[in-house]
Amino acid sequence: MPVVDRDFVIKRGQWVDKIKPLEKIGLGLSDNIIRQISGFKQEPDWMLKRRLQAFRIFKQKKYPQWGPDLSKLNFNKICYYSRINYSSQSTWANIPSPVKKTFERLGVPKLEAAVLAGSGLQYDSEIVYQALQADLKKIGVIFLSMEQGLRQYPKLVKKYFGQVVPARDNKLAALNSAVWSGGSFIYVPPGLKVSKPLQAYFRLNARNLGQFERTLIIADKNSELEYIEGCTAPYFNVDSLHAAVVEIVVEAGAKVRYTTVQNWSTSVYNLVTKRALVKRNAYMEWLDGNFGSRVTMKYPSIILSQPGAKGKIVSLAVAGKGQVIETGAKAIHLAPLTSSQIISKSIALAKGRTNYRGLLKITPAANNSRSSVCCDALLLSPQARSDSYPKVDVKNQKVHLEHEASVARLSQEQLIYLQSRGFSKSEAVNLIVNGFVAPVRQALPAEFAIELEKLLDLEMEEAVG
To answer: What global pTM score does this model have?
Structure first.
């Protein structure tokens, strides 16, 4: 998300807040820990049963046999729940002062007043602030924490929870389903267009902590919604874990845009499952910016389940020394006349590594469907590395496909030319990089494109000195 304070841009949100939690459980995971988390939240029995079942799946599932090495991630050295307050606040003045100062430093209040229809702020394991414009509440928009959504709309949550991303999907999705805490629950009524974006910001502050927010968005028929999330964490010499799940249901004729700018510290494993089910003549767009983290594995997905469904996935990954940022996209065409577009940009500097991993699947039922895939990588040092692992599975001959990929090193000719025109080396690198990421920047709302440029500038300063 955009920031206002330049100090945050320089330090990348990686200061440590000296706030003691009111409630925190020990390291490791067991049935008793899961019961304890569920008890804190006073959940119905059916949710506890789902958690325990998901934990059994988690223990049975293995790591994927592909992708970055996760063998050093020790689940027994992770704390799975920590909260600094007992209830979410809807008034800014009621937030505990140290927490309020943190989010003020991140620019949240100014952004909320300027361009947002509502904000949800999560600190460690729990939402601390949730607000929605009164006029949207009156016409039926729901924007709550997942805990509040479960309490106030249990039938709706039970109907959709785990339908797009079931616990059995993968090991980390099973872990999230077992220990989830926080996240957003959103419902937009039929025909309603929310003109300003809703926003969530996730702050991971404690050592050894895992953050496992669960976001569920339901855009009913012919509705429109834009949702934006941002993330930061301080650096520790021990690992932290972010393993979120996002489920989105885009009903017939609806449109959803989901924008993420994640700026984790390099002690965080960022392992996320994001998926949208897109129905007849509906549209889903993922915009995804990935900075920081030790390891990232994230592949926003669209399931085009009914005729006329459309989707677009635009992503940017930036990896520096000691980082492996693996991002990509999945587009699954299940019905005729569906279309998808994937644009992936990655930048590797120092000894960083970026990977693109994608899946395009077109089933026999998806006649007259279209898809376009473009994945480009830019290497800014001789030690940097980038790999591409695209998978195309087409079971239908009546389709139109385009696939393009490229890997390039920083052009010395371009640098020399720009420097001959009076630009310094760092200015020249910035110009080349900003031109490379232009398709991502142009897809973002103006305020967030500015934040993207600031984060890129910071990465380039560290790269070229």
So the answer is: 0.89
